[in-house]
Amino acid sequence: MPRNLIRNFSIIAHIDHGKSTLADRILELTNAVSAREMREQVLDSMELERERGITIKAQAVRVEWKGHQLNLIDTPGHVDFTYEVSRSLQACEGALLLVDAAQGTQAQTLANAYLAIENDLEIVPVVNKIDLPQADADGAAAELADLIGDTPDHVLRISAKTGDGVEAVLDAIVERIPPPAGDPDAPARALIFDSSYDQYRGVVAFVRVLDGSFSTREPVRAMALGTRFEAEELGFFAPTRRETPTLEAGEVGYVITGLKDVSKLRVGDTLTSERRPATEPLAGYKDVKPMVFAGLYPTDSDDYPQLRDALEKLKLNDASLSYEPETSQALGFGFRCGFLGLLHMEIVRERLEREFDLDLLATAPNVAYRVKPPHGEWREVHTPADMPLEVDEVEEPYVAASIIVPKEYVGAVMELNNDRRGRFGQLEYLSEQRVHLTYALPLAEIVYDYYDQLKSRTRGYASFDYDLLGFQPGKLVRVDVLVGGEPVDALSLVVHRDAAYDRGRALVERLRDEIPRQHFDVAIQAAIGSRVIARETVKAKRKDVLAKCYGGDITRKRKLLEKQKAGKRRMKQVGMVEVPQEAFLAVLNLNEDRR
Amino acid sequence: MTERARHLYVHLPFCSHRCGYCDFVTLVAHKEQHGAYVDAVLQELALERDSLAETVETVFLGGGTPTFTEQDALARLLEAMPHADETTIEANPETVTPELASMLREHGVNRVSLGAQSFRPHLLDVLGRTATPSAVRGAFHDLREAGFENISLDLIYGIPGQSPSDLDADLTDALELRPEHLSCYELEAKPGTRFTHVHGPELARQAEAMEGYFEQVVGRLTSEGYRWYETANFCRAPEHVDGRDLRARHNLAYWLGRDYLGIGIGAISTLRGTRRRNTPRIAAYLRALAVAECPPRELEQLSRDVRTRERVMLGLRLDEPLPLAGLEDAIDAAALERLGALGLARLHSVDSGAIELSLSERGRFLGGGVTADLLA
């Protein structure tokens, strides 16, 4: 296909603003699928994605419209996958910026729109859901036009649901979005914007060819990681898989690599041909590192091998997931897992439970810390218990947070961000009603019930997005929890010095309510190093007898004692203290309970 | 254990009314059934003759309210009882008259366990007891007048609304009567009883305030010359009563793991490694015995393991050390060490070289939990 007849684009939209519905309509109108055989939301192939209304993994679909080849590159819809979004956008020349006529621009839309603008994409603004009774198409169009520096009459108005206006969208793609640039005669270069794993064929890379072309059986190299393989099969989706002998400059498709390790081929890397290799990789490759960590433990310790196998399998599909074995005296054997963010964590947990039928306990999530011990080297710490007691310096990840909120909630949002150690960036009015705020916030504060607080303080009107800023110094301390003088590893946490007292207090009080009274006083303490910052006591029992026991009672009383004994066996021993597992869980769920 | 039982329990289920907190096998009224029931019990006794030893040491008539049983029928039953060193009957104060007291004496009863429960009218009311405090005293005097030299009083503490001074006053009133024996039970709000339904939430609220009541009871009674010989039982110490051992011998047999025969509805026997429970249904019981057949029973085989565990559980209720010979397997050594470190339990050897296990005073206050810990 001549390059001037190719258009590569993606759709940028907030969750539920109708991205998948629009994609479906496009497939229908271009006869890629007949209305009859059409499953709803063709692009979102995974069950979980459909249920959550979000897209986890990008795919690309090729359709034809009036003699042109249109490649629709689907982008993940969430902040945790910003890097993947940026790579998908880099594979396009244009983007549909889709906004709900009733809801207007949301923080996520904004973030992705800026990403698209940064990538020099031609933006086609589209207001969706004009059929809704509460739609304010004019207001949404004005806001959109303002955002991208366009005029409101240039904004398309459609209903993806009824199909109204969708043909005009296809025409606009052809008319407004430029054909791909690139040199068909230069050494081959293709951007990997997504990958998946097939148990028979190995790693499948989704690519956009920038220069030159690739053929089946060609030896190929990933430039950043140096991985070599032979292109076993090339093809594209329309929307089902179609094999093709070559992928040429400007085209989008897939490469079956036969690689058995998904970590050998990372999103953002550049593929080139070994026959005539390019010298420069494409810009923008990053090694994405997990920033949020949590312990995952099987509820039933017998399930540990199944959990290990499940993580291994998930990892094949998800290069950004990391995990290593971890032992906790409270929870037994499990894994400390690293995630891109909270949503990524939830998705992984749900997939483990749903696809692998596991029952899991998750510890409260924490972020990655960089620490420099006295006379030591900087190193990264992924679990609070590993934080050295004495440190010269500590750094924690910060994010650039972007919040869009009706103006009456600006005060509430500012208050929350101040409480969360936020540094104010700027405030701008998107319209008369809606304000865009930016803050630098520690990621740890977001991990700790930030979304819920934001939602509740703004009655659900706030939309929120963030991008990682990197590590910045913080006055952080490790708080340990001691039961009967013994530290409980799973309950240690790292917090800002100013919050240590409150968090320690809350933990200790909660634990006091959960630990049953024993035959002796049990001290429950929160401590920073050797300094106790909060203390509670579970008073010793003064009596614990079966009131009476005569000839008729013996069997029943024996069974009672045996039950009591069995209950004691199920408890975890912390020093001399018997602690029910539920007590640990209640404390670990402290975050969730605050919701 | 090829020996035959030396201890006989007879269940007399009838009551004038059912107290709210009670979960025993009881039957209200049915006066017309008393005679038939006694006939059936005597029939069962005849059928079980071989289970009893030639010499029976103790007989215990429990209920229900044994003294509520229609008097002729009760007399007939007592006449048929084997002679024993200790024959105890449970009595409710309102059923005791001078006539009844003499009749009991004449028929060989030498110990009465009187269900006083409390001397505070408002607390008796909460318990649903019909006897007044003066009726309790009156009954006690009637029994003394009739010549009873071994009377036990039952007291209940932890009653909804009971203050520490209420409890102290109850103990004072009980002690004034100089009973040979006292059984003091914490009120158990048993699931499913009417009482728990009404008072459960209140009891839960008071639980912490009432935590010291057990200590209060033990402290007061031991300071007044009573021996705390079993978790819930006290008797006047031998030094105050010319060396008499006033422990309840029948109950002691349970706590020492001896065999016993129980007859009547719902009665439980433990005989040669088998525990059995008679049907609690009077109709089925009467029907079977009318044709001289054993009543329907549930059987439980007690393995050696279970029996040793029971020996530990029961033995640790007593103030005398538990000889460990033969019970070693039932004890969790690590738990024993922990409890030793906490000063709750300890092992010691006696002159004969035998090892004994005993609980400290605090260990006895925590006896249930400590025993659960100790059992392997």
Task: Describe what this molecule looks like in 3D.
The complex is a heterodimer of chains A (595) and B (376). By secondary structure, chain A is an alpha+beta fold. Chain A folds into five domains: 3-176, 3-Layer(aba) Sandwich (Rossmann fold), CATH 3.40.50.300; 189-273, Translation factors (Elongation Factor Tu (Ef-tu), domain 3), CATH 2.40.30.10; 292-363, Alpha-Beta Plaits (2-Layer Sandwich), CATH 3.30.70.870; 372-473, Alpha-Beta Plaits (2-Layer Sandwich); 477-593, 2-Layer Sandwich (Alpha-Beta Plaits). Chain A contains 15 helices and 34 strands. In chain A, strands 11-10-16-7-8-15-12-13 form an eight-stranded antiparallel β-sheet. In chain A, strands 2-3-1-4-5-6 form a six-stranded mixed β-sheet, sandwiched between helices. In chain A, α12 (497-514) packs antiparallel against α14 (581-588). The longest helix of chain A has 18 residues, at 497-514. The radius of gyration of chain A is 28 Å and the shape is globular. Chain A starts with 5 loop residues before the first strand and ends with a helix. Chain B is an alpha/beta fold and 376 residues long. Chain B folds into two domains: 7-254, pyruvate-formate lyase- activating enzyme; 304-374, Winged helix-like DNA-binding domain superfamily/Winged helix DNA-binding domain (Arc Repressor Mutant, subunit A). Helix content of chain B is 37%, strand content 21%. Chain B has helices at residues 34-47, 71-80, 98-106, 121-127, 133-145, 164-176, 194-206, 213-223, 249-255, 282-290, 304-315, 333-341, 361-365, 367-374; strands at 7-12, 14-15, 27-28, 58-63, 86-91, 111-117, 151-157, 181-186, 226-230, 233-236, 261-263, 268-271, 274-278, 297-301, 322-323, 345-349, 355-359. A nine-stranded mixed β-sheet of chain B has the order 9-10-8-7-6-5-4-1-11, sandwiched between helices. Chain B has a three-stranded antiparallel β-sheet with strand order 12-13-14, with no helix packed on it. Chain B has a three-stranded antiparallel β-sheet with strand order 15-17-16. In chain B, β7, α6 and β8 form a beta-alpha-beta unit. In chain B, α1 (34-47) packs parallel to α2 (71-80), α1 packs across α10 (282-290) and α6 packs parallel to α8 (213-223). The longest helix of chain B is centred in the N-terminal third of the chain and has 14 residues, at 34-47. Chain B starts with 6 loop residues before the first strand and ends with a helix. The A-B interface holds A 519-520, 541-552, 554-555, 557-558, 561-562, 564-565, 568, 576 and B 9, 183, 185-188, 211-212, 214-215, 231-232, 251, 254-255, 260, 262, 266-268, 270, 275, 300, 306, 309-310, 313-314, 317, 338-339, 341-342, 344, 364-373, 375.
